Every structure is written in structure tokens, then in C-alpha cells.
Amino acid sequence: MSVTGEAAGRGVAGEAARTDVAGAFEALYGAAPEGVWAAPGRVNLIGEYTDFNDGFVMPLALPHTAVAAVSRRDDGLLRLHSADVEGGVVVLDVAALAPLRGDLGWAAYPAGVVWALRAAGHPVTGADIHLASTVPTGAGLSSSAALEVVCALALNDLFGLGLSRPELAVLAQRAENAFVGVPCGVMDQMASACAIEGHALFLDTRDLSYRQVPFDLAAQGLRLLVVDTRVKHALGDGAYAERRAGCEAGARALGVRSLREVPYVQLPESLARLSEESVRRYVRHVVSDNHRVERTIALLDAGDAAAVGPVLNEGHASLRDDLRVSCPELDLVVEAANAAGALGARMTGGGFGGSAIVLVAEERAESVAAAVEKAFAGAGFAAPGIFPAVPSAGARREA
Ligand code: ADP
Ligand code: MG
Predict the structure, then answer these.
(1) pLDDT tens figures, 203-240
(2) Mean pLDDT across the chain, nearest whole number?
(3) pLDDT digits 0-9 by tens, 359-368
(4) What number does the ligand 1 atom closest to the CA of 349 have?
(5) CA-CA distance, 169 to 186, in Å (whole number)?
(6) Could you say which of 9, 151, 223, 313 would form a disulfide bridge with 365 (CB–CB 3.0 to 4.6 Å)?
(7) CA nearest ligand 1 atom 6, residue
(8) What are phi and psi of 50, to 5 degrees?
């Protein structure tokens, strides 16, 4: 395994992959697609469990993308196929799409996008879609948002809907929340839709305003590693809903619309007003993580990305001890990476598995990755997948 290549890991959709997607579309549907689009997965640098509290997040897009070859139809049929899933073409009637059917499997993601667009009054009259993705699934890297956003952008372009990137992200989120039935925030879709190369996306989830923050790690001799623990995260098990309800209870008790309104400098007094122990912990995490996003931006703006390392470590401790969404594998990545000389590390995404990120000086990237692999082997865990997070472009038309 090498972590020094530009895009090591599970491979990145390049020219060959795009040609394959168009070719596979033609083989399936009997004509060339009208176009080919791509949308990336993402990794979140800092700001976790803040996006349903009107707070701050700071994701970056990965080089890994979902690619879609798409043509319009005008007969009301939606035909869906994924190169990455067993089984044939799924054929649906766009007028009969109904939320939470449960039997659609993976097809609920693209079908949900068509449903959300139509529910918002946009004239999507049918489509043929063939998908292929290099975003690892269930690893906390948002393969689901990549799938939604690539479909949303393709349909927006083909049907001339004129929707903005944030509007497409919100509709994609609505597809996942209301149609698929996953209560995710809007960060993943915004990152996939709006990120640009060489930057992290500072997003204020209260009003979806955002700023592209330069994040040129190579220029500062640094590398950000993604470590996929291979432990499949399962957000549907009630833990996410419980944290969310706890945060809402905290906001109510403090008399604010959302925890975003609690200033970091008032955190001690605010915590003293909360009687429920778990709510106190959740509030402390959310308010301090918002503050960590602001500190990270200040450090990046000052050109001192290395100083973000300790902020990542603090963020991990907060997710582990206050929010309690980590797991032994994620904790071991952080511990082993830091012991081997990383600048800092934390779990990223929803937790309970999925991925961690490690900030490390370029010359130590190989040895830190090796130390994490060794620690996993020693603990009897499956070998992790490790690759560098190169800040990449958001969704785009490719052909
Ligand atoms: P994550 O977004 O963290 O990868 P999710 O559980 O939110 O994890 O989304 C994963 C789901 O998205 C998969 O179980 C599958 O239904 C769907 N999905 C992702 N990529 C593909 C793909 N290439 N083809 C078909 N379905 C996919
Ligand atoms: Mg997802």
C-alpha cells in the first residue's frame, strides 16, 4: 500500500471509467447517453454533529466520484442501473414514486431525487440512468450523497431546471430524508455539490452560506490520510436520533432556537443550567465543535495547517467522551497515528465505524500509515483502507 500517490486507494474515476459508463449505458439502453456527470464523496475536516444544530462544518470533496450517464425520457419511465450492484435495470413510473417504500434498495437514492424534483414542481418526465461509483459505501465518505447529487445535477442540466448548487443539495437531502428515510443533515450534499479543488468548504448550515477556504496541504508539506476502518456504520440504530433529540432538548432548555445560538464564551454558564447529564455532554460537544471549526479556519487562513492537528485531537476526544459516537477501531486509529508522530487525528462522519482522518507531515505519512495497520493487526481488526484526501472538485458535467 502506498499513501504517497496522488490518488491511491480504491481507484479514482478517470477518462477510462467515464468512457466505460457511457459505453455501459449504450449497451444497456441501446443508445448513447445525452451526457455524463460526476459528483464526489466527501470527508469532513472538522465540525461533526453540528449540521442539525444550525452550526458550522468544513468538509472537502474527495477524488472518488459517482459517475452517471443519463438521457431524458418523455414517457414517464425512470430506468435505473448501477454497475456496482447485482441485479438488472430497475424500472419505475415517475408519477407513482412514493416515499419510504422500503423495497427499492439502492434505487431509492436516484428515485428519491426524481421524486424530490417533481415534488418541488420541476418537470422531470422520465430518464434512463446508469451509475458507477468509486466512493466506498458505508465508510462515512458519503457515497449516498454522491449518488444523489450526480443525479440531481444531470437532471437539472438535461431538463434546464436552472437550479443553483445549494438548491440541488437541499433537494438531494430531501430525497434522502423524506424518500429514502435517512435523517441526515445537508453537509454531505453541499460538499458534493459546491466544493472546489484545493479547498475545504466552510459551510454555515443555518443559511447555507459558504466560503471556499484554501487547503493546499502539499504546499505546506502535509498530508491528510483517510483511514477507512471497514466497520460499517449504522446510523439507523437510533443513536443518531437520540443525539439529535438531546441537542433539541438542550436548545429548548437554554431558550434558543438551536445550539448554534449558544456562544462559546458562555458555555460554562449554559452547561450549569442543564440538569440532564447526557444533554450537558451533547451541548458541550456541539458548542465546542463549532468553535473548533472557527479556530481551524483562522489557522488555515494564517497558512498554518499543521496547527490544525491538535484541534482534530480535541474534536475526537469530544466525539468519544461527550457525544459517545466513536468505537474501538476509530479510537485506535487516533491513538496509533498520534503515537507514531501524526500531527493530529479524529473520527469523521457519523461514527460507530466508518472513517478517521489523520493529519501528518508528508515524510511521516508512510510510517504513520504502517503504524495504524500494525496496530489494527495487533488488535485483531480487519486491515483498514488508507488513502490521501486530496481536496477535489465538486459535481460537474464530464461529457
Ligand atoms: P455512505 O453515504 O456513508 O457511504 P450510506 O449508508 O449513507 O453510507 O449510503 C450507502 C448506500 O448508498 C448503499 O447501501 C447503496 O444503497 C447506496 N449506494 C452508494 N453507492 C452506490 C452505487 N455505486 N450503486 C448503487 N448504490 C449505491
Ligand atoms: Mg450517506
Answers:
(1) 999 999 999 999 989 999 999 999 999 998 765 568 88
(2) 94
(3) 999 999 999 9
(4) 3
(5) 7
(6) 223
(7) 138
(8) -100, -20
Kindly state if the Cβ of 84 falls inside 6 Å of ligand 1: yes
| Residue 242: inside a domain | yes
What is the tally of structural domains in the chain? 2
**CATH code assigned at 268:** 3.30.70.890
Query: 1 lies in a domain?
Result: no
Residue 12: what pLDDT? Answer: 46
Q: State whether 182 and 326 are in the same domain.
A: no
Residues 115 and 245 in one domain: no
Q: What pLDDT does 16 receive? A: 58
In the prediction, which pLDDT does 8 show? 36
User: Do 267 and 179 fall within a single domain?
Assistant: no
For the cut 80, the answer to whether the pLDDT of residue 31 exceeds it is: yes
pLDDT tens digit sequence for 146-178: 999 999 999 999 999 999 999 999 999 999 999
Same domain, 165 and 222: no
Per-residue buried b or exposed e for 17-48, using 16+ beta carbons within 10 Å of the residue's own CB: bbebbbebbeebbeeebbbbbbbbbbbbbbbb
Residue numbers of the domain that contains 91: 6-214+392-397
Query: What was the pLDDT predicted at 5?
Result: 36
Catalytic residue among 188, 228, 289, 322: 188
Residues 178 and 254 in one domain: no
**Residue 77, strand partner residues:** 93
The verdict on residue 49 lying in a domain is: yes
Query: Do both 31 and 141 map to the same domain?
Result: yes
Q: What are phi and psi of 5, to 5 degrees?
A: -70, 160
Cell 457515497 belongs to 143
Ligand nearest to the CA of 228: 1
> pTM for the whole thing?
0.94
Query: Is 188 considered catalytic here?
Result: yes
Distance, CA of 25 to CA of 48 (rounded, Å) = 37
pLDDT digit string, tens, across residues 267-314: 999 999 999 999 999 999 999 999 999 999 999 999 999 999 999 999
Out of 37, 106, 226, give the residue to mutate to test ligand 1, the one with the largest number of ligand atoms within 8 Å of its CB: 106
Do the domain assignments include residue 272?
A: yes
> Which residues, 6 or more positions from 133, have their beta carbon under 8 angstroms from its beta carbon?
13, 64, 65, 66, 67, 82, 84, 143, 146, 147
Identity of the residue numbered 47: G
Atom of ligand 1 nearest to the CA of 132: 23
Q: Do residue 205 and residue 224 come from a single domain?
A: no
147 lines ligand 1 (CB under 6 A): yes
Both 134 and 227 in one domain: the answer is no
Q: What is the CATH number of the domain that holds 72?
A: 3.30.230.10
Q: Whose CA is nearest to atom 23 of ligand 1?
A: 133
